[in-house]
Amino acid sequence: MGRAKKVVLAYSGGVDTSVCIPYLKHEWGVEDVITLAADLGQGEELGPIKEKALKSGASQSLVVNAQEIFVKDYAFAALKANALYENQYPLSTALARPLIAKLLVEAAEEYGADAVAHGCTGKGNDQVRFDVSIAALNPNIKVLAPAREWGMSREETIAYGEKYGIPTPVKKSSPYSIDRNLLGRSVEAGVLEDPETEPPEEVYDLTKAIADTPDTPEYVEISFEQGLPIALNGENLAPIELITRLNKLAGDSGVGRIDMMENRLVGIKSREIYETPALLVLIQAHRDLESLTLTADVSHYKRGVEETYSQIIYNGLWYSPLKAALDAFIDRTQERVSGSVKIKLFKGTSKVVGRKSQNSLYTPDLATYGAEDKFDHKAAEGFIYVWGLPTRVWSQKIRD
């Protein structure tokens, strides 16, 4: 079709993105396909990815280690916003997409490509996240999405790949669709498509079954500085190490499993399983520390901002003007969110059991009911009279 001469393709090493390589070349006339795999902490699956891309027909295969950027610039920004989509999902997979889009655009510029491509289908959220993010970063570059247009079944896709030397998966493919990065795992398809079916234990990897967790609680103290986590149990840790250790600590106690019916951006409801031990515990601790250090009006107003922020991330608008404006508000709220929170991990639960901060707004001699009480109780009667005046006037009028 001659849509582009040189393309940078977001590459995972799976069937779809591997088949995208010969498809782009033979069906759409692309002369040069450069693959780009972002190392976001997905582990062993990245091992053979370079060789596989070249064997599938790529002229170059790039692997970019972006783990630190992923945590510091994306995950921690969402953490400061306590971002939970539909009050459950901490956006572990969604957060990766704007970063991958940024890497695609940068690689296209560096290698002189006139288009970028991805392997997303037409049913998911990721196509929106990629397309909109790429357009925000470079509105003039072409975005190709072969899997959205080729109309092939899974079996036909594999057969097409075989025709161009891409081997069929050696073993029977897992019935599940799994996405993994440093922040967690998302799992869908297979028996999970029935909302009534309890997820089998085999779908989990980062979290232990309750029966296999310790019989004594595990305590972890998380320290924050201006809203950012900096230490576990008093030990200062770099962002990647902090996430990795907390994933293990919480996961070993069975903490971090999410089973939800999710409203996709494209209008479909999907049953999703997530494992995000560290991210869920960090949001829980961070939100609690905010309750100690933020005034009531800021804290209450921020809750609405957090819901909007989570929708922005989920809906692929990371590089939008609204996101940038909300970041300014959120960063201002974090200036005094420093201190530590103690979490009790036990049998699949995480519970805040203590918190402290040099910026604490908790005043013991006002809160106490003991002899040290300094609250002016006599002031309460006048306050209540003024506060309740509109209600009394309204009540009197409807009775007249």
Automatic annotation (TrEMBL):
PANTHER family in alphabetical order: ARGININOSUCCINATE SYNTHASE
UniProt-annotated binding residues for ATP: 10-18, 38, 119
Species assigned in the record: Merismopedia glauca CCAP 1448/3
GO terms of biological process kind: argininosuccinate metabolic process; L-arginine biosynthetic process; urea cycle
Arginosuccinate synthase C-terminal domain ranges (all copies): 176-394
Pathway: Amino-acid biosynthesis; L-arginine biosynthesis; L-arginine from L-ornithine and carbamoyl phosphate: step 2/3
Record's subunit section: Homotetramer.
Residues that bind L-aspartate: 121, 125-126
Principal location class: cytoplasm
The keyword Amino-acid biosynthesis belongs to this UniProt entry's keyword annotation: yes
Enzyme Commission number: 6.3.4.5
ATP-binding recorded as keyword: yes
Name of the featured protein: Argininosuccinate synthase
Family annotation (SUPFAM superfamilies): Adenine nucleotide alpha hydrolases-like, Argininosuccinate synthetase, C-terminal domain
Recorded name of the encoding gene: argG
Family indicated by similarity: Belongs to the argininosuccinate synthase family. Type 1 subfamily.
Transmembrane segments: none
Gene Ontology MF: a single term: ATP binding
